Amino acid sequence: MTQRQGGAPAAMSLSVERMCALTGLSRAAYYRGWAVSEPRREETALRDTIQRLALAHRFYGYRRIGELLRREGWAVNRKRVLRLMREDNLLCLRRAAFRPPTTDARHGWPIWPNLARRLIPTAPNQLWVADITYVRLDEAFVYLAVVIDAFSRKVAGWALADHLKASLALAALQMALDQRQVVEGGLIHHSDRGVQYACGDYVDRLQARDIQPSMSRVGCPYDNAMAESFMKTLKTEEVDGQAYRDLAHARAQIGSFIEKVYNRQRLHSALDYLTPEEYEATLPPLRQGRAPAAMAAPT
Fold first, then answer.
1. H or E element, residue 127
2. Alpha carbon of residue 278 to chain centroid
């Protein structure tokens, strides 16, 4: 049996026996040299690939880089990826930022009970979570409202404005309603207790589509952890690395990140390292089951 080297076409390559005969080396000598040089070539190629992926995905840690490597055909474990990224100074960096308040719960609107606390959605459009965060421009703040499908982590709706009025949250909600297929009585909408979500205009919009409002408990940010997690990702991977000139510039850049990167390209560990759109695409058509929660009245 003959063995051929490299990826060259068979007609242009030589067998090990033929190369040893031409050079006057034994096969044992050839394989001793191969055992020394080939692992170094493989390590160099792997480092090159890791560097390319790390530069293309600046805020990916070693787990997501490892998953991208496996998608490209590399058989490599996470410990090795971590070691190489650490040696090459490619580990992602995190930084804290000043956070102005975006939630005003001091209002007289009814507060709805928390229906999402133990709810585990089994299909899209059973549980949406909503939140608002700030985005810093050169000389001012603007505010981003999002609506996220808790099943796939997909951002279903978003809006950016220079105010914290209820119309900001309503614009994000309307985008989600326009883009998603909602089964009447089958969707819970969860948010904090902010006035934007508790006010009559917002609740009326939900109830017009038979969507059940749900709100976090007092002083418990973990009740809306999924929305908070998205905001952290947005700040780390997009906002903190940018210097937005004005509202239009911020809207274009953040919109591109949400629609093209977060929903379609970013790997999510909670989704078995699929993107939100890939995760939803794995479901059978029309899988929309009703949310397993009873209707509740506000307090």
1. strand 127-136
2. 12
Q: How many CA atoms lie within 13 A of 209 on its CB side?
A: 20
Domain residue extents for the chain: 10-87, 127-281
- The H-or-E segment that residue 51 falls in is helix 27-56
Q: How far is CA 199 from CA 84, 103, 129, 190, 297, in A?
A: 52, 13, 17, 14, 15
Can you spell out the DSSP letters for 218-283? Answer: TT-GGGGHHHHHHHHHHHHHTGGG----SHHHHHHHHHHIIIIIITTT--BGGGTSB-HHHHHHTS
3-state secondary structure of 146: strand
Q: For residues 223 and 105, what is the distance between their CA atoms, to the nearest angstrom?
A: 15
Q: Note the pTM of the prediction, 2 decimals.
A: 0.66
Q: How far apart are CA 88 and CA 178, in angstroms?
A: 46
Q: 127-281: what fold?
A: Nucleotidyltransferase; domain 5 (3.30.420)
Tens digits of residue pLDDT in 148-191: 999 999 999 999 999 989 999 999 999 999 999 999 899 999 99
Q: What is the number of alpha carbons within 13 Å of residue 114 lying toward its C-beta?
A: 15
Do the Cβ atoms of 117 and 215 come closer than 8 Å? Answer: no
Query: Are the C-beta atoms of 106 and 164 separated by less than 8 Å?
Result: no
CA-CA distance, 273 to 279, in Å (whole number)? 9
Q: pLDDT tens, 100-150?
A: 555 555 667 888 999 988 899 999 999 999 999 989 888 788 999 999 999
Angstrom CA distances, 122 to 37, 111, 189, stand at: 51, 26, 15
